[in-house]
Design goal:
alpha+beta; 12 helices; six-stranded antiparallel β-sheet; Alpha-Beta Plaits; Phosphorylase Kinase, domain 1; five-stranded mixed β-sheet; 18 strands
Amino acid sequence: MAEDERDTAPPDSSVSLYGSALEAGALVGPWVVEARVHPGITAYLYRATHVVTRVPAALKVLHPELNHVTEVLRRFKQEAETLQRLDHPNIVRILEHGELRDGRPWLAMEWLEGEDVESWLAHRGAFSVEEMGTVMEELGSALRLAHDVGVLHRDLKARNVMLLPRPEGFTVKLVDFGIAKVQVPDEGAGLTSAGAVLGTPVAMAPEQILGQPVDVRTDVYALGVLLYQLLTGSPPFPGTSAVEVEEQHLHAPPPRLGEHVRVPADLESVLQRCLAKRPEERWPDVDAFLGALRASLTRQDGASWAQGLYVDLRFPAGEDDPTDEALDARDAALDDVRAALESSDWGLAVEGGNALLAWRPLPGDPVGREREARSGRAQADRMLARVLERVGARVEARFYVCAAPSDFSREGAGPPRLEGGPLLRLEQWATGGAAGAVTEREPR
């Protein structure tokens, strides 16, 4: 090739695709980059698509200048390994991970169609009490799994909580385990660590700021920060600098929700304990926090309300000696119902050979109570349809739902227990219904 021809030859386009920031069209494993999404501190986030399946993904690729920083590489690898351990519907799912030719590690995660809580607050304003409860329940469930397998998130904040729209409301996904603390065998069973100061000032617990040991109560503190932010639209300790924010976390008394929004006194107390400066004064774990939160949300009008669901699976009248096949079908159908209830927000109050009584607290305000009662009725309809598919005409399935003032315990770390009220008097509302139907009644 002549010298002048070499000078006018087009540049190698492959080089430009794989610069410090990847360009659209770059191939990362089997993923094709479509667009840049966010330039993070240690890694760029891209939207990408699988070359064969066309499945979208959120692609995280380390910045090249950090490719030889041992601690950054270790944490990037740890995030991939952590997400592989955390299989939960409210935690972002990992799809694949690997390295570019230049050694830069990458991580492909499920693409989430939604917006983070920080964006929601900016565009739509504060959450209702009921919406806050949904966020806390789903986040709490995700954190419970993480804590059970030895993982502290340590960066639970509005930007790391994604809201995905659903036909009824939304669901939550917890993302970014980049600075998670993963327990290793020689650290013992306490799930604590000390030394490095990691986190985001807006949501850091005092012990994080001071580089002291952290444990599950550190994430509980961050849940309290988020709870306050959801209901007021602002973090509890705002400031113009990181130092100012950290000083408030360390020394300023927690603000009161009642100064900005109208909430039950019990909810105020739940938050204040979350934001206690000393870890030993906080809720000891996520379950204790959620139990207290549920109880606080059932007494907004001075009375506690609950919804009952009674499931009665009987053999048709006159069938004194059902076949083994019919017995197995009934037992399997009841097991399915029990599993579906236990995986949602229902608790079991009474169980028998062919029937069970489940219940769940309802919001105290009439509007929220009616909405949640409708949701519970819809759940009952869906469960009945599944039961009928399984048992056919061999078993008569009768479902009953009822909402009523109720007495239930609010002590201890676990969920509340139904202890009194009309729902326990089944003869008042759970008899005489039609087979193959959900009967909705008020207690007599």
